[in-house]
Specification:
Length: about 600
């Protein structure tokens, strides 16, 4: 019996039930009792391992074919291919739905179909959106409990006539009578995995994967791909950004939203601990920001998620002590090492592991093969973070003062620069780049461009996305956030990092805040405004003048050598390139004498 008064929702659930043919249907209420019951189901199926060393925490191992987002199986499906743009995989809705209906037919036999009503963002916020995920995975249910707001309160807000985003998911492995998972992670072969988005209908269909962003449809699928397209239509922004509050000694608060591609220290920055006297940092979100212009003309952001779904390898008390403290209890771990004393371990943790069970379930000792998969994950409630901001669930959001873009570059790109205008800042974000591998240091190697860190997540044409950024700037006018670009990863010729990074990145953020206040100087360069050495607070920092000069240097010849790569990136966007972006490219080259 459905607890919902929403006739549209009830009709959709019944339509899907008839197609996927589950043994039964359960509506999720979001309670602790439900979470515990789901986890017991997973323990009984041999899919979860209870961790002796961490209260109420569990380890999972996925199938080796199901360990990460499958970008080549991810589609933006629109009637017109032009609307998906040159950076997305496209298939027509009719063709894709026909293929997927064939796969969905009877796919939940032998399983339960769970109905998960969830809110992305604080329940009832005018920036929040409601989704309903149908899934045959109890693993998805427990992760959605942590990552979103699930249950009865969401149903109350939805009411009889409220709108919701339908999210259909199946692991794609029906069970025959008497059959069970018996410790084998359920998923379909890679060629049958589909992660499909239909932005014209605000609809998500996912089939064949039980892992991460492929299966937790509130995360990248709804919160970025569908929400970015909704934001364009409705005049707001959905961005792949952390949100951080920095408070100066005088008590002034600055809110920073920062977009970095993977492996660029995003979660570390979100949970930053400043070494600067009197400065305080608080985390509002580590991955996604939804932003709306409010009555005062400023841009306000919420974190639509309720938890952290972080990459485990590399997370340590050295790199991110606040993340480590966030996962002490009530956490889910996937594809980590199970230690002999009943804890989890991964590479670059604070202590070594001499023996355990690896992510594939094999007896393991350190050697040629890693123990934890490179994309091993932890899922933990955001409220457990010691530096979570008191306003992280404020339905009004927080006003954004600063946008930060960045990439991972061992050479060429300096530590920080500031845009001279909003349009220049959009250009900086649109051309954000990382080196493809640490070994690719020759000037001819192509950079991996990742505009606003949204390349895999923009739910529509990237040229239209940039145009939306330009238009949001027009609406914000003088109240638009200042825009900066950072690179923490410059190395010397000997391969040593020139900047200490981690908490010391707060020194760069302090300069940004003082720029917003008009309290600190800068020098004008072809890249934009950059700090003079004396503009950065280096109190207590041991860095040589030579290294500091190097990270603050603009090598015009090196930037000119990359014009060809820049032109190639813009050519990829081609006919969809906004005129204002063309103008920025021209002006950028002119400033470097090109």
């Amino acid at each position: 019996m459905s607890p919902s008064k929403n006739s549209k929702l009830n009709a959709w659930v019944e339509e899907v039930r008839a197609m996927v043919q589950p043994d039964k249907v359960e509506w999720c209420d979001g309670s602790k009792a439900e979470y515990d019951r789901m986890m017991q189901i997973l323990l009984d199926a041999g899919l979860a391992t209870k961790l002796k060393k961490r209260p109420n925490s569990f380890l999972f191992r996925s199938d080796p074919s199901d360990v990460a987002r499958v970008e080549d199986r991810t589609y933006i499906s629109t009637r017109n291919k032009r609307d998906a743009g040159p950076t997305n995989n496209w298939t027509s809705p009719d063709e894709l739905k026909a293929t997927m209906r064939g796969l969905y037919n009877g796919c939940m036999k032998g399983r339960t179909m769970y109905v998960i009503p969830f809110s992305m963002g604080p329940i009832g916020s005018d920036i929040a959106k409601i989704g309903v995920q149908l899934t045959d995975s109890a693993y998805v249910v427990v992760n959605m409990h942590i990552m979103t707001r699930v249950g009865s309160k969401v149903m109350d807000v939805l009411g009889a006539n409220g709108d919701f985003i339908p999210c259909l998911h199946s692991v794609g492995k029906p069970l025959q009578a008497g059959q069970a998972d018996n410790g084998v992670w359920p998923c379909a072969p890679i060629e049958k995995k589909y992660i499909a988005h239909f932005p014209e209908e605000n609809l998500i269909w996912s089939y064949g994967s039980g892992y991460g962003g492929n299966a937790l449809l509130g995360k990248k699928c709804l919160a970025l791909r569908i929400a970015s397209a909704m934001g364009r239509k409705e005049g707001w922004m959905a961005e792949h950004m952390l949100i951080l509050r920095l408070t100066n000694p005088e008590g002034r608060r600055f809110h920073i939203a920062a977009a970095f591609p993977s492996a660029c220290g995003k979660t570390n920055l979100a949970m930053l601990q400043p070494p600067l006297k009197g400065w305080k940092a608080e985390c509002l979100g580590d991955d996604i920001a939804w932003m709306k212009i409010k009555a005062d003309g400023r841009l306000y952001a919420i974190n639509p998620e309720a938890g952290f779904f972080g990459v485990a390898p590399g997370t340590s008390y050295k790199s991110n002590p606040m993340a480590m403290d966030s996962i002490k209890e009530n956490a889910i771990f996937t594809n980590c090492v199970l230690t002999d004393d009943g804890d989890v371990w991964w590479e670059d943790m604070d202590k070594p592991c001499d023996h355990g069970i690896d992510w594939k379930g094999r007896d393991w000792k350190p050697g040629k093969e890693v123990g934890a998969h490179g994309n091993a994950r932890f899922t933990a409630p955001a409220k457990q973070c010691p530096v979570i901001c008191s306003d992280w669930e404020n339905p009004e959001g927080v006003p954004i003062d600063i946008f930060v873009f960045g990439g991972r570059r061992t050479r060429v790109m300096p530590l920080v620069h500031q845009a001279t205008s909003w349009d220049h800042g959009v250009f900086m974000g649109a051309t954000a780049a990382s080196e493809p591998t640490a070994a690719a240091l020759d000037a001819s190697s192509a950079l991996r461009r990742d505009p606003m860190a949204m390349l895999p997540f923009c739910g529509y044409n990237v040229g239209d996305y940039w145009q939306h950024w330009f238009e949001m700037g027009d609406r914000l006018g003088s109240k638009a956030p200042a825009i900066f670009y950072v690179n923490w990863f410059r190395k010397s010729d000997a391969g040593k990092f020139l900047w200490p990074g981690y908490g010391d990145n707060a020194r760069v953020l302090k300069w940004m805040c003082q720029r917003v206040e008009g309290k600190v100087g800068a020098r004008e360069t072809p890249l934009g405004f950059m700090p003079n050495a004396e503009d950065l607070d280096l109190t207590g920092l041991s860095i040589s003048k030579e290294n500091l000069d190097e990270v603050l240097k603009v090598d015009a010849a090196a930037f000119k050598a990359e014009f060809g790569d820049l032109d190639g990136w813009m050519a990829k966007v081609g006919e969809f390139l906004p005129e204002r972006m063309k103008k920025q490219v021209t002006e950028y080259k002119k400033r470097f004498g090109g």
